[in-house]
Amino acid sequence: MTEYKEEDYLMLSGIQHFSFCRRQWALIHIEKQWDENVRTVEGNIIHQKAHNNMFDEKRKNIIISRGMPIYSNSLGTSGECDIVEFHKADDGINLVGEEGLYQVFPIEYKRGKEKEEDADRLQLAAQAMCLEEMLSCQIKEGYLYYHEIRRRTKVIVDNELRQKVYEMFIEMHQMFERKYTPKVKRAKRCNACSLKNICLPQLNSVSTVQEYMNRMLGEDNE
Amino acid sequence: MKRLLNTLYISNPESYLSLDGENVVVRRDEKEVGRVPLHNIDGIVSMGFAGTSPRLMGYCAEKNISLTFLSTSGRFLATICGESKGNVILRKEQYRISDNKEQSLRIAKNMILGKVYNSKWVLERTIRDYSLRLNTEILKEKSEYLTASIKSIQQATAMDQLRGMEGEAASVYFSVFDTMILQQKDKFQFDKRNRRPPLDKVNALLSFTYTLLVSMCKSALETVGLDAYVGFMHTDRPGRASLALDLMEELRSVLADRFVLTLINKKMIHASGFYQKENGAVIMEDETRKTVIFAWQSKKQEEIVHPFLKEKIEWGMVPYVQALLLARYVRGDLDAYPPFLWK
Ligand code: SF4
């Protein structure tokens, strides 16, 4: 298995961008272009809330840890979990300073509602894979909490999802190494893209600059 | 398209700016005279010396709000610049191009084509709109010269040659600038372009408007991740925003010159709003400067259709869109840099 060096770690949350559009990911993570539109600002506020409580909460059988830094050597990524819940369970793992055994559940906060695309599930699965590596445990499921509908959705972290995450990170590392930004492929998703002002997907449908210059400067009339 | 946010212009030199929550607060003599929420502002231009609190500077740097200081006469002094958009790759490519004569020439040529094309159309439009009022013969003649000049610019093979052609075209264009002044003719005369200092009212207006435009170009370039100080045609000189000056070339006539002509021709400003120093330098009164800024703000809101993108945008967005297109070319997404060609 590949082992990545720490300085080559990519941002874990980038997997959402990557699965949405390769070019969007490259613009944000390779070129560091970021157009903070309303959507992302809202997103930040929700996240701030999730991370706000610096103290971890303990209930009877649950420990809730907020803003936990995570990483994975084999994926070559690091990031943060909004929330990790540890539930007391006989088939769990032991935790430093805690009595009993616990199962681990990553929970990620999202604005909006559940989406058809895999982006959120992939991100959660990647978090689970990090936690497994760090805690040497097994995680079968996690939760996505959707702010708009204020509901948790269970995500089963199955092999198919893991495989996808794994392959995606390999592809991301390759692209990052080449510092390559894929060209625009205009698609429906562009309408919802927070980077469309930087990406200018409509450029694909305009003429070449040469044609534009010829047309305007009237060379072809001669 | 990105939303056009407001630029806050502070024209009173006694004003001190500070941050309060999410607002910029303007104080004069310790008294609060204005308060503006920062969330719909993308730039602050302060003319004068009273100063700004470090906290406001920090906030602006963080939020990507440009903060520019001009002297009372509109001379560029400084700008607060936060962490540059981490786009090293784009910048490196920009530096490579600026070190490469041929590649620089390709971009500069299109910019100058834009410049000459646009100044030609400023003349043409005057001919069309005022054929009954003025001797269009002379304008027509100069316009034809500019048409010819566009052809030769396309053939230019070296930067110096291009600069020469540009200079000639500019002087031909300015030779009839006075003809386009249709009102208050006895009070606003234009002989030739002079800037350090401007020796007549028209030059004072032009210089001031160019300063407003160059600061727009500068923040537009920084916003898209380019280095405003490394140009393709204007050569590097410490403290000179060469790329902003490059980019401004194609916008001068359509944005700034026409604006100045409108101010005079629509009698939005008056000769009494200027005074002359002992050495001949012409200076705008505070009130005149305010009027100009106010008119400039509404000019920026006017909508047009971008000739290349074919998309509706505001005049104020034009520098940003051009900077973006330039970045796209530098990155290799476009076959050439498309200048803003306005008819
Ligand atoms: S606008 Fe379209 S092509 Fe461009 S980054 Fe967004 S989704 Fe990708």
TrEMBL record, chain B:
Q: EC?
A: 3.1.-.-
For this UniProt record, give its keywords in alphabetical order, as a comma-separated list: Antiviral defense, DNA-binding, Endonuclease, Hydrolase, Magnesium, Manganese, Metal-binding, Nuclease
Q: Which GO terms describe its biological process?
A: defense response to virus; maintenance of CRISPR repeat elements
> Which residues of this UniProt protein bind Mn(2+)?
166, 234, 249
Q: Which cofactor does it need?
A: Mg(2+); Mn(2+)
The record, for InterPro entries, names: Cas1, CRISPR-assoc_Cas1, CRISPR-assoc_Cas1_C, CRISPR-assoc_Cas1_DVULG, CRISPR-assoc_Cas1_N
GO MF annotation terms: DNA binding; DNA endonuclease activity; hydrolase activity; metal ion binding
A Pfam cross-reference name: Cas_Cas1
Q: Which domain of life is it from?
A: Bacteria
Check the record and name the PANTHER family matching this protein: CRISPR-ASSOCIATED ENDONUCLEASE CAS1 1
Self-association and partners = Homodimer, forms a heterotetramer with a Cas2 homodimer.
Family classification: Belongs to the CRISPR-associated endonuclease Cas1 family.
What does it do? CRISPR (clustered regularly interspaced short palindromic repeat), is an adaptive immune system that provides protection against mobile genetic elements (viruses, transposable elements and conjugative plasmids). CRISPR clusters contain spacers, sequences complementary to antecedent mobile elements, and target invading nucleic acids. CRISPR clusters are transcribed and processed into CRISPR RNA (crRNA). Acts as a dsDNA endonuclease. Involved in the integration of spacer DNA into the CRISPR cassette.
Name of the featured protein: CRISPR-associated endonuclease Cas1
Give the species. Answer: Anaerocolumna cellulosilytica
Q: What is the lineage of its organism?
A: Bacteria, Bacillati, Bacillota, Clostridia, Lachnospirales
